[in-house]
Amino acid sequence: MNTPTAPVTPRKVTKAIIPAAGLGTRFLPATKAMPKEMLTVVNKPIIQYALEEAYEAGIREFIIITGRGKAAMENHFDYPYELADTLQKKGKLAELELVTNVVPKDARIYYTRQGEPLGLGHAVWCGHTITGDDPFAVLLPDDILCRNNGNDLKRMIDLYETTGQSVVLAEEVPAERTSNYGICDPAGPVAGGAMPIKGFVEKPKPEEAPSRCAIVGRYVLSPRHMALLANGKPGKGGEIQLTDAMELVAKDEGFQAHLLQNPRFDCGDKVGFQMANLYFAMNDPYIAPRLQPFLQQTAAKYERRQAPREA
Ligand code: G1P
């Protein structure tokens, strides 16, 4: 058996790929003419949450993988001259701040198109000319991660920079949900919030899953992934799978799973999206006191509707 050998001095992780070429079919008709990444959670588009989280974790170069019909994302991250000028003249300085500070001054965003929907592995590979020989993070923007209990991506980057091993974010899921996720094959017990991983299986049936430890929305990957993805072959579902490259890296370099320490909302799903809106609204000092009575009344009405009628 090969002993995993990670790079001796891992480089700092300052680049991130954000795959955002998906069609958003679960939100039609809203996503007919608007990218799903631009749906708003309270007052910010979903993709802005990913950018803020990654910036806080030390990422300074962002590679957004786009597709047809996604121009609104580029406009959102652009400097809005006309709007800024109008707000300035009207003295609306708080609003001016909101639209001009969307991208921090020392961050840089690159856009590249994924011409064909060949899978997540291919989408990530589309960023290879910008990542070069550097390690990189991947953020699937559908997943919004809270940061009340620290920044999980930052912890993953720290783990990569100290061990030189790639890291996935993982969360335990019920057995019946393993077929929705890439599943980790653990190589040892959890220590310090992370565990060593010897392989991955993409979307296994419960009886074939090596664990219930699912990959969720964040990765910190060694540069070797790009070389493997360049020769990526269609895997599960006929798509070039990121987990297939990770499986090979796990055998060669070793791999870690960092266990999620915060609430996560899957905004690729209508229920998760509504929950995210309610969660962030209830943390907003203007909205929360106004929304709370409405939520209570609505929940009470729902409970009355659900209650069994007396005979
Ligand atoms: C992708 C990955 C899967 C991972 C999931 C997390 O699947 O292929 O391994 O667990 O993202 O959201 P998708 O959700 O794109 O089908």
What would you note in describing this structure?
With 311 residues, this protein is of the alpha/beta class. Helix content is 35%, strand content 21%. It contains 11 helices and 13 strands. Strands 5-4-1-6-11-8-12-10-9 form a 9-stranded mixed beta sheet. A two-stranded antiparallel sheet has the order 2-3. A two-stranded antiparallel sheet has the order 7-13. Strand 2 (40-41) and strand 3 form a beta hairpin. Helix 3 runs antiparallel to helix 4 (93-100). The N and C termini lie far apart (68 Å). The mean pLDDT is 93. 1-O-phosphono-alpha-D-glucopyranose binds at residues 120, 140, 181-182, 202, 214-217, 241-243.
Order of helices and strands: EEEHEHHHEHHEEHEEEEHHEEHH
Number of helices: 11
Unreliably modeled segments? none
- How much helix, percentage-wise, in residues? 25-40%
Oligomeric form of this entry?
A: single chain
Number of strands: 13
Percentage of residues in strands: 15-25%
- Shape descriptor reads globular
Bound ligands, named by name, code or SMILES: 1-O-phosphono-alpha-D-glucopyranose
Structural class: alpha/beta
End-to-end distance, in Å?
68 Å
Q: What's the alpha carbon Rg, rounded to whole Å?
A: 21 Å
- The mean pLDDT is 93
